[in-house]
Amino acid sequence: MTIGFALCGSFCTFSAVFPVMRELSEEYCLIPIFSQAASTVSSRFGTPEEFRARAKEICGKPPLDTIAQVEPIGPKKLLDALIIAPCTGNTLAKLSHSIADTPVTMAAKSHLRNGRPIVVALSTNDGLAGAAENIGKLLARKHYYFVPFRQDDPAGKPTSLAADFTLLPQTLRLALEGKQIQPILL
Question: Taking CA 75 as the corner, what is the angle to CA 174 and CA 4, rounded to the nearest 5 degrees?
Answer without folding.
Answer: 40
